[in-house]
Amino acid sequence: MMKLFDAHCHLQDPRIFKVAPQLIKTALNAGVVHFAVNGISEKDWNLVKEMSDDYPSIVPCFGLHPWFVAERTDSWLNSLKDFLRATPSAAVGEIGLDKGFQGRKTDFKDQVEIFRQQLELAKELKRPASIHCVHAFGDLLQIMKATGPFPAGVILHSYLGSAEMVPEFTKLGAYFSFSGFLMSMKENKAKKMLKAVPSERILLETDAPDALPEVHNLDTLFFIDTDSSVPEELRVQGENSTPSDVSPSERPSPGASDSSAVPKETLNHPANILNILTYVASLLELNEEELAELSYRNAVRLFSYADSKPLPYTSISRRRAANGDMEYSFEFEGLFSLCTAASRQPLVFFSRSYNPGSKDTLVHRCYGSSQESEDGRSTLELMRTGNSASNGVSILLS
Ligand SMILES: [Zn+2]
């Protein structure tokens, strides 16, 4: 099954928090393996942390969003540092600059100052940062040039900037993440911009509960049940219609069948990343599987940093070596430093193409050899770089 990584969303949002467990379940069933959940102000960082503790699939991100800059307390920066220190698996976000309708309500000088402090913090902590930018790409580039480059990566979330700026942002370490907002851009402009983005820097996101994708066929959309703005006849694919969770097409068609039938405030479901995938793949003239694979790998690479959450391995194969030992070979994604569990020592482990510290290596192939234990089972323990007690992942090899 295709694996997807929602590189930017807000599952802690008060509009959907109550149904978040069901949204996550539905999205997992649809192939979404991870969600980068972005806090937006001091008020929701705790909730993001709790959700991340409850769900291995959630990558927590803490940040002060430009719309909420005026509400900050005097201790916001210390509090942010405390959250990032107490949550070694966390990235930074959502932070940014906004000269749009909403953003104009906040003094731009303040925005710049708050943004710069958070960007510097992300760089210092070697974590990625998720960046919101509306009508301020010139300012953003200038600040990033003064602060960057960013070897841990930055995510230009819901990117709607120009094709021309892509190479400059790329040089500084940027990834480009696409959401339903891309559908508001003229198609030929979007196509030109997408084609300017290097394939190893493309990400997909929903920005749920915002940015509902515009679609021609409503049957492909997932709706959120508690959203009272959704007319009754569109709610059938809601969160309580469990058996049809992953087949939105089972929903009976309402009168009009495209997005024009849906009220503007309709909330977005994280499983709608499938619609983004379809749209971006069509503009890039890639098939959906290819784009899913490449955007997933990009996200796993980006969200692999010291003490990040263990991300899943892809495959294990084994064979009997000439000397009778079992030989394992497995491929996995992300950055790992590797060791065996001392107490279950039968696995002698060595690696060939493992390349610690390199974010360019997409797949590490590692080989271990082992005599099987009496019950025919061996357990291999992988530890992430950073080596905190909680970041190991155990793999049963047989
Ligand atoms: Zn967002």
TrEMBL record:
Residues 233-264 are annotated as: Disordered. Residues 238-247 have a biased composition (Polar residues). InterPro entries: Metal_Hydrolase, TatD-like. It holds the Pfam family TatD_DNase. It comes from the Eukaryota. One of its GO terms (molecular function) is hydrolase activity, acting on ester bonds. This is TatD related DNase. It comes from Escallonia herrerae.
